[in-house]
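Work package 3, deliverable 3.1, input record:
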Amino acid sequence: MASLAKELSAAAGAAFEAMGLEARFGEVRRSDKPELADFQCNGAMAAAKAAGRNPREIAGEIAGALKAHALVLSAEVAGPGFINLRVSDAALSARAEAVRGDAMAGGEKAAAPERITLDFGGPNVAKPMHVGHLRSAVIGDTLQRLFRFLGDEVVSDTHLGDWGLQMGHLISELQDEQPGLIYFDAGFTGPYPAEPPVTMDDLARLYPQASNKAKADEARNERSQKAVAEMQAGRAGFRALLTHFINVSVASLKQDYAFLNVSFDLWKGESDVDGLIPEVIARFKAKGLAVESGGAWIVPLAREGEHIPVEKNGEITYKNAMPPILLVNSRGGTGYHTTDLATILDRVEHMGPAPDRIVYVVDQRQAQHFVQVFRAAAKLGLMPEDRLEHIGFGTVNGADGKPFKTREGGVLRLADLNSMALEEAFRKIDAAGKLPEDMSAEERADVAHKVAVAALRFSDLMNTRITNYVFDLDRFTSFEGKTGPYLLYAAVRVKSVLRKAAEAGHEPGAVAVTEDAERALVLQLDGFGAALLGAREKRMPHILCEHLYSLAQAFSAFYGALPIASDPDDAKRASRLALADAVRHQLETGLDLLGITVPERM
RNA sequence: GACUCCGUAGCUCAGCUGGAUAGAGCGCUCGCCUUCUAAGCGAGUGGUCGCAGGUUCAAAUCCUGCCGGGGUCACCA
């Protein structure tokens, strides 16, 4: 059974068509005014304008047709031409039962599923993840889960940053500290030691150290540039170091991601497409798309009207235009434009069936970079621009309103954020004092972890992803109001009611909706499918967050207003238990899509 | 300078493919635990939707222009 909103939309659409008007006017949605209606259709007014007719007259005819529909209790015209619909208790009851028994908890598959390569995470090998990496991880992972649930075929790839200047910084800084290491002996032919010469802490220390020096000292920066160029050119010792750095980093990254329930199918990185870079460059040159400029090779991308070259002191800058990409720099090295293009080539031509779409979940500040890469990829014929998609998100700012810096040091590590959230969860759990005395230390730790993850993921996902937000520890770990822990609490309470009822021998039965709180609850359940599809279409997880939060609220109101397991009437008790079970099913399903797991007790 | 995102309640934010009296959370004020988990529920408080024009029967929503803030603009990614 489709959602009530969908059934009603189809019926209203058919009624519009019968009048010679477009079916799209029949869109029915939840009413803004629950005291007046369950659902409303506003299409008559738009249709009247298109057809040059009286809106109330059209609304009256549509309402007349809808009255005959099996789900509809009443259909009335209000104001300038709103159609207010009430559905029958029987329709709501049937809908609740359908949600309860549905594998998708009332959701429905996407109409046109796609094969999607999802690129998110993007951690750098040189440095531990910081708070800014939270967003890509959490938004990307949620989209991954959502896409799969709705029928898309997803391959996720973390796309490690392991090929750029940061590797040069790391290599040269290590050489300064330990010049005797075998990796720096150009005459050595191998094999190199299997044990890594550094730990994650070493890497975390070496990188900012080198970066700061390079900023202050051009000669120091030049050495990093040289080191990276040599590494890219294939110097064996440097490649061996690269492999060590990657392995050390990945082990650490996996821990941070695992804490947040974030996973990837692939852990490929920029260095994996190293071998494809010459081919990318050759293809651009062969097609005449690359031009030489100041010793470097660039690919101009500006379109008609965009390209405004301005010459100043003998140098040409491209003011007010889409800048070209730097294919090969003047040292013969390549930057992230080129590796990104090589990665597209890899994904399209070397990894099985080509994806329908490649989606990048990366900071909004890189929007222009992606426009450039996408244009270049399209020019090369790798993939049309409209199949490449950048899902940007706002920065996580500090209290000063500025984004957390990543290269000056002093940033909050993601691992530390995770620990802080976990500590806070423990503290709040102890303060609430609700966990049963008999609960083992292991289970308590598990509950605290689930609460911490719910707090972190939900507080990040509930924001519209495009806007910046201020990092506020209280907000991340708040256990009151519109938060992940509130949702967990609501879900745990449903489970608790159901468990206790089962222990008393009471099972869910046939649903018979009668009370307002029950009607409101089922109407909320009915909106799940639309929320899922909306979240997928717009790539906006907060739409799903809003739905689940409203569902938890509707359940809490229902719980407060009516007895469930404690109702003495057998039929009412069975019906309300079934309603509670439908809520549990949809809440758990939806929270799982957000990467949030509900414990049995808390 | 160009492009881009944002500007809605004291604070943090939804709503933006135009529709009825603009919604949440936090805060603040009341009320509710001898009954299923009060990390809860109910009621109240609180808004020139940045400003000015325009389109429309109807604008927070669409268009134009301003103002304010963030971001980006080839050899770091």
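Confidence is low (pLDDT under 50) at residues 311-316, 405-409 of chain A.
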